[in-house]
Design brief:
By secondary structure, this protein is α/β, with parallel strands linked by helices. The chain has a single domain, classed as P-loop containing nucleotide triphosphate hydrolases (Rossmann fold, 3-Layer(aba) Sandwich). Helices cover 35% and strands 20% of the residues. It contains 6 helices and 7 strands. A 7-stranded mixed sheet has the order 1-3-4-2-5-6-7, sandwiched between helices. α5 links the parallel β6 and β7. The chain binds guanosine-5'-diphosphate.
Length: 192
């Protein structure tokens, strides 16, 4: 069943987000397929475009479900062109959110199923673990991997994240693979 997500607000600081009983956050490198995945989970074409609107890409974007549970779309990391000062601002915003947000239950770290994990993905995973922030890896765009290469790719991606393959959610927003399982999982997590 699609997640009935409604966009609520964008904020620069987590203190400006509404209170939540339970929340799941999405984070990942720019272009990893985050907007496409959120749209697929909600079965809405335009939803996460909100987050991709210029000016909002660098903010925390919050969506709510009818259950009252919330989803936060975090700005993508790894834009090579972003100057150091802005990167530092990104870090402070994201780290503040991840460390201090009340009600945050799980961080979904999106990793490109074809090429991941990147160095930045591994840094993010290490940082989350070091700080005791619960996280799950979601491997995106798995339709881009040839079926003859899939087993090896899954093994390589999992090893790169220091995880077992079974701990990772494998999805394709364009083909729909893994989407229903993820919808069920998130609905359960986001029902207080
Ligand atoms: P974001 O920057 O993380 O929000 O990434 P987008 O959702 O905008 O996707 C980046 C690019 O990857 C776009 O060209 C998408 O069409 C493509 N993409 C996203 N998800 C998939 C997928 O599941 N399969 C394939 N083949 N391409 C995808």
């Amino acid at each position: 069943m699609p997640l009935q997500l409604t966009f609520v607000t964008s904020a620069k600081h987590h203190a400006d987000l509404p209170d939540t009983p339970c929340e799941v956050a999405f984070v990942g490198r720019s272009n990893v397929g985050k907007s496409s995945l959120i749209n697929a989970l909600a079965n809405q074409r335009q939803l996460a475009r909100v987050s991709n609107t210029p000016g909002r890409t660098q903010l925390l974007n919050l969506f709510v479900l009818p259950t009252g549970g919330t989803v936060v779309d975090l700005p993508g990391y790894g834009y090579a062109k972003v100057p150091g000062r802005e990167r530092a601002g990104w870090r402070a915003m994201i780290e503040g959110y991840l460390l201090e947000r009340e009600g945050l239950d799980l961080v979904l770290v999106l990793v490109d199923g074809e090429i991941g994990p990147t160095k930045l993905d591994v840094q993010m995973l290490d940082w989350l673990s070091a700080n005791g922030v619960p996280n799950t890896v979601v491997a995106t765009k798995i339709d881009k991997v040839k079926s003859s290469k899939l087993a090896a790719r899954r093994k390589e991606l999992a090893a790169g994240c220091s995880l077992e393959q079974g701990d990772i959610m494998w999805v394709s927003a364009s083909k729909g693979a893994g989407i229903e399982a993820m919808q069920r999982h998130l609905l359960a997590l986001l029902t207080p």
